[in-house]
Amino acid sequence: MAPAATARAWLASALLVCSLASAGARTQRDIAKKTAQMTEEDWRRVEEEWETPEESASDGPAAPPQEKEEYEFKPPKARGLDVEKLQREKDPKKRQRMVEDSQKTTGPTMIFATVDYPGCCEDKTGTEEIAKRWNALLGSKGMDAQAYVVDNATILFSTNHGLFADEIVEFALEQPECVATDWNSKRSGGWSGVPSGLSSR
Fold this sequence. Notes:
Elements: H1 3-36, H2 40-50, H3 53-57, H4 66-71, H5 83-88, H6 92-102, E1 109-115, H7 125-140, E2 146-151, E3 154-159, H8 165-174, E4 178-183, E5 186-188
Antiparallel strand pairs: 1-3, 1-4, 2-3, 4-5
């Protein structure tokens, strides 16, 4: 490429960059100017558009703009029991599963885990160490649950999302110290009925 052509290409590129920068600066100046010219009434309208129903309820009745519906939190619908589907189902295990699924809540729930390990049940020290380890594992798996020691051989899992109870039960039963879990009046796992600390491994 000739030196003159190179110079022209470079000059054209420089002019393009300058014009784009100038347009961007003009746009920013325009936005700043419009923002500076907004009145108290304009700001109040902007604030009302972004208020939640709870916030606006304290100030009196609020107009229901359709735009707000797009941003409002909609909790998941709780699963109910489809009685007709239950009656059509012939397999007793599937029927039991349908009833269990209908009892799951979207809100808080608790799951109890019975533990057993060498030296178990004399005090809470070993069980507290297990609960700490389980909390770390739950966090690393991204599960929203906390493990608390209830007594020397029982750990309580607490979660704000009851729909994930099955995953928490599965997690607990995978742990070598877990004898059984109790959730929703159902005991899961082996060793059921054997008091913790009395089993032989």
